[in-house]
Design a protein that fits this description.
This protein has 279 residues and is mainly α. It has one domain: ABC transporter involved in vitamin B12 uptake, BtuC (Orthogonal Bundle), CATH 1.10.3470. The protein is built from 11 helices and no strands. It is globular. The chain starts with a helix and ends with a helix.
């Protein structure tokens, strides 16, 4: 009863709505993040948010605009995603190599800028998030993101799947894999920018990568992969929030640990299934 009474407070309701919006949205993106080998890419974008926030403060100080930091993070993350995509198309470097130096470089720049600005106390919130600070404006942004991602997958699922699994066949059928890659990368960047407040730079990639990874272990068909990933995306954030509120634990890490537990359960089921078949 005490736990249910917590939802009388706006911050708890907003946290739950945020989890229900971002969980399945990130899980759906995560299906193709995993299939395309972009897990490190999403992690790099999450950490680059440090630089986006710092640049936002510098622009605000110079212009007096006082815009929402999410706007600066979104712009910087999208530009970084496009830059990484361009480099992967125009240089002989592997995608992992490009991600590695942009990841470390952007984090280093972000920390230096925040240090110069004297905003050291911001680092904890940026790194670990604060889902209870979500408000109506944040929920609105998350709903818009969820709608855009849903529309993209409803209209481009077949093309994106073919471009991911067989780019040459996709080109033969008139699909432009490079253009789809840029569009998908921008969606991941947008999810990172909008979801930063929920889990922070250190933990956000778990929301994208783990549900799809767990679903990939637990399923054998592409349709079931998407279905299970979405189911986990819906269920895990509320469970993490509930565990956090009940046990008085940090919310972001609690959500991530529930993700890891789900992955472990799927792996156990994957190992047990052949044993049952033999019996």
């Amino acid at each position: 009863m005490q736990f249910l009474e917590l939802f009388r407070y706006d911050f708890m309701r907003y946290a739950l709505i945020s989890g229900l919006l971002l969980g399945p949205t990130c899980a759906l993106l995560g299906v193709f993040v995993n299939l395309r080998g972009m897990a490190f890419f999403s992690d790099a974008l999450a950490h680059s948010a440090l630089t986006g926030v710092a640049l936002g403060f510098m622009v605000d100080a110079a212009t007096g605009w006082k815009l929402d930091p999410t706007i600066y993070v979104l712009i910087f993350s999208c530009l970084l995603a496009l830059g990484m995509g361009w480099l992967s198309q125009r240089t002989p470097l592997s995608r992992d190599t490009i991600t590695a130096f942009t990841f470390t470089g952007s984090v280093a720049l972000g920390v230096i800028l925040i240090s110069m600005l004297g905003k050291h106390r911001m680092l904890e919130g940026l790194l670990f998030g604060s889902i209870y600070s979500n408000g109506p404006a944040d929920i609105a942004r998350q709903a818009v993101l969820a709608a855009i991602v849903l529309i993209f997958f409803l209209t481009q699922l077949r093309s994106l799947t073919l471009a991911t699994l067989d780019p040459e066949l996709a080109r033969a059928r008139g699909i432009r894999p490079a253009l789809l890659h840029y569009a998908f990368s921008l969606l991941v960047a947008a999810a990172v920018a909008v979801g930063l407040k929920m889990l922070g730079a250190l933990l956000l990639s778990a929301l994208i990568v783990i549900p799809a990874a767990a679903a990939r272990i637990a399923t054998t068909s592409f349709r079931n992969l998407i279905g299970v990933a979405l189911l986990l995306g819906v269920l895990i954030p509320p469970v993490g929030i509930a565990a956090s509120a009940t046990l008085n634990l940090p919310t972001g890490p609690s959500i991530v640990l529930v993700h890891v537990a789900a992955l472990a359960i799927c792996q156990i089921l994957h190992l047990v299934r052949p044993l049952k078949a033999r019996a």
